[in-house]
Batch of 3 targets.
Target 1
Amino acid sequence: MKILHVGSSSSPKAVDGVNATVWLVAKEQAFLGHQVTLMLDSPPDEAAKILADEAGFQLMHIPANTWRYDPNKLKSLLHTDTPSIVHMHSVYLPKQATLARKIVQNQIPYVITPHGGLDSLRGKAKKFFYDLIAEKRRFSQASAITVVTPKEERTIRAFMPRYQGIIRWVASPFDTSKFSEQIWKGNIEAKRLVFLGRYDVLHKGIDILVEIARLLPDIEFDLYGTEDSKTKKWLEKIRHNCPCNVHFNKPIFGAEKFQVLADASFYIQTSRWEGFPVSIAESMYMGLPCAVSDLPNFAELFHQNDLGLVLPANPTKAAQLLTEAFAQPIQVQHWSKSAQTFAKDNFHPRKVALDYLKIYEDIAA
């Protein structure tokens, strides 16, 4: 099967959940014997070339602006090496809406994976008009739409109530090949909570996290990440009035990251919306208990499968639940084991790649 993935960065090292998914799935689908191509907006970096060469998939650089890909190069790709399926990742990218029209004209089926993007709180007014002129049409013509949490299907149904295509849950993968053998040490008494990710205050709920920390002065909150340009000034105000038990650190990777997770008491994420963050999946895989906000779609998975502590957006109530959790080590150990089992059953890249292939096959049938 000829598979064309669209929506990744030009580097597999770019820190972004959508990007990580595309590169991992492409790698696994190529290993399974399929002809896989990643369509990139900008030239691939050296890491991209090495990975593509090792895994056996192609990189196709087609320049793009906000609204469209280079029409001549796109035409050459679609006509000379026509894909069996196009898999578009993410939402609210006008160039993907333009691409969808070209794909339909060439009678090529396509799949959309929004990665939780329809739940974003940013730019609601602008998105309303863009939905009317472009995004709803792109979704309506998709042969399948995949969601990264079961609850996200309800978002899709509300967005496209008359959609008749396939909607199916496929989990977000993470790179288990680089995963440390290290597991959670069970050190609840350390009273140390860890967050990994961008310091996007609105999206990641950094303001909520800091207010929870303010109410729990005997617990250390270690945050590792990079500043986000959209909320940089907001972050500066938070840091200026930050309680002393909150520590903003540079991002960490590899063995250092796994060591930090292994030594923590909980992983904490207070996002206002999400797909399924890689950092949560990695923590679950290690057995590190997770405390997550009840706002994103993945919180429903935590509720239904008893995977961890689900926190309300109200910092006072959230702080109370965390205090109670630290006093219940048996419950915390249960969350550790149930989350680890769930992660190993669902987040392996090969499992995710096969789930996507089954959808492609169902479309072709």
Target 2
Amino acid sequence: MIAHEFKIFDAHLHSYGLFLDSNKSIIEYLDAHNVEKAIITTINRAAKISPQMDDIDTNQLKTYKMIPKGQLNHDDVIEICNQAPKRFYPFFWFNPNMDSQNEEESYKILEEHFKKGFCGIKLQPSINLIKIPRDILKLIDFMQEYNKEYPIFIHLSPKFSFFSGTSIKDFSILATKYPDLTIILGHAALSMELAIDIGLNLKKYKNIIFETSCSIPLGILSLIRNVGHKRLIFGSDAPTTNPLQLEIDKILCLPISKTQKEDIFYNNVYEFMNKF
């Protein structure tokens, strides 16, 4: 029995993960939580929590590779989408940091996936060590030449030991340079401080949409009050980082209206994704 009354469009779903019951398909998993549609991408199979990480010093971490060179295989996403084409919106997890030998091949791979129905790009700055906007200018120009409507999903990535992170300034520069580009800012309320900073400083960029996965509920509420609920979209990052129900509960518990919850859970993301 579904524990809530809302239909859901999940803007941040992965093809598999720790929180997917091995006896269930991803579609059964979504059905159990009333998720009618989802933006889906693959997952980095190379990134594993390893006990050997304790033996790596800070200098080694700077060169530690958590992802293979080139592009990830997205056959798992294609297989899932083929089972329910009207339900899924596949995004390609793209690595823009590659050597010159792999660059031409990478863009060929990306175009092939666009032709197969992929309708957006996902970036993981902390895993691929991407500097925003410097490292993605060619990628965005390529995307917009193919289809100006395609959104780009970028993880908010705070600074840590071997990566300088993404900043509010990075996103403001990107949004200004590409005013017609829909930018989905993932994990937008990752902490209270970030949520306040983001809400106050990115409010004026109407092409930035704020996604809720891995966020704290009060941070989500702060964003609603600063940028308006129509610019928030529900994402779970399930079944990789979180159980779906945990992320759903963060929206359910908010002291906002049913209409606002309906918009965040479904209507807001549907408005700009239903064209694909």
Target 3
Amino acid sequence: MIITNKNWRNTFETVTGKSHVKIKMPNQDAALSKTISDEILITAVADGHGSKRCFRSHLGANYAVESAVTILEEIQDRLFKDGALNLKAFGKFYTKQIVKLWRDKVDADLKEHPLEENIIEDNDKKSIKKNPYIVYGSTLLIVILVKDFIVCYQLGDGDILFISKSKKVSKPIKRDERHIANDTSSLCLLKPEKEFKIKVFRDLKHVLKMIIISTDGYSNSFSSEHDFMKVGSDLIEIALEDGFEVIDENLKEWIEETSNLGSGDDTSVSVLMRIEEESMA
């Protein structure tokens, strides 16, 4: 499904990796996009941790993307002040509100479905009793297109790619060196709002043509960083030659095949492309 605002076009998909299909485990990823207004579009992806002690992280991932979209809708009137971007609204105010709503959703689920101690491993009982949000742990990546600005958020692993008109691919947020093995920042931390990396960019219409955000199941499916980055130039070439609709129609199949041949992990990908550039193809 393609969604648009006046400047951008977006499609997104999430697939269950073969490693989870094999053991009948639900997709731990989530993806969601929404047009808030003609000038505001948001897309988000999340990756539930999926470990033994994070056994409801598939819910946590869904709560994460839902919270990001809902809060942006609620604060849209605060995004600009005196005609300028209200950086305070886009900063910790927004991330704090996301965390609060995410926790509210988790609390509601815990109230309706209390944790059963017998399914929690003994060495995890103490930490989960102290912090039940661990059970729902998830990363979160967000891109907001708002008027002449692009705002990127990253909590935990995953990737955001910017692709230029010349098909040059770059990362607006560098990978956190703390994210090694399965260790990553998460919404289940004590103060996750402080862990978000936030970058604000002017929308350089003559340069930037495509944005891709993805959970780490995607990049981990490639043999090298170079091969992963090449996805950006490949997708923009397809869109310019055959139209963005081709990406929309095939994205799920492409990322499913990539995951199956690579990481075998759940994978979510969201692709944004500037409308006027695609229409010139």
